[in-house]
Amino acid sequence: MNRLRFFKATRLKLLILATLPVLAALQGFAQNNVYNIKIDLSDKKDSVKPIWAFFGYDEPNYTYMKDGRKLLTELSALSPVPVYVRADNLLTTGNGKPHLKWGSTNAYTEDATGNPVYNWHIPGRKVIVNEYRIDEEHSNSYTAWKKIGFPQQVSKEQYSILEKSGKLQLYQKPHYASIRNGVFNTNIHLPGHAVSLLKVSW
After folding, report:
1. Cα(130)–Cα(119) distance, rounded to whole angstroms?
2. One domain, residues 65 and 92
3. pTM of the entire structure?
C-alpha cells in the first residue's frame, strides 16, 4: 500500500469512528419516550421585555429594496422605542447583487499596495421612481367634467368624481431604476400642455 492509499484508508477509518458515536446518540434519541409539553396560555405574568439590542441579517442589498423597506417599517412598528438593525456584509467586496445568506456592497477593496479603497457607489444604486402626470387624461377634473356633460349644478356623486379626478395621479406604476456614479438619468415623453412630477426615493 503506497502512502496516498494509506492516508485515504486512515481518513476513512477516522471518519467511520467519528460517525459511530453520532449514530449511537441519534439511535438513543429515537428510543426515548414521548414527552408531553403543556403551556397554560391563561396564566399571564407580564409583558415581554426585549433583551436584544438589534435585529440582524446577512443580506444588506435587500435593505434598500421594496421588501427591505417594508421589513424595516414592520420592525419599527413592533416597539415604542427605537429599533436598531445590523446588516452584515456591509463592507464585503462583490458586485452588489442581492443573494440569500450573504451580500456585497464593494465598499471596501484594496489597491496593489494593500491600502484600503472605499467605494460607496453600489449601496442604494437602485432608486424607486414615481411619475405623476397632469395632462388630458390624468389629474384633470376638466376632462371629467366634459365626460359627464358639463353640468352647471353637480350632484353629490358628480362632485365626488370631479374631486377625485383633480387629485395628482400616477402616470405609471412605480418602478426601480439604476443610478450610476450617484446620478439618476432618465427620459420622459411629454405631450403638449402636460406636466410630470418625478419622485425619486432611495
Report:
1. 28
2. yes
3. 0.43
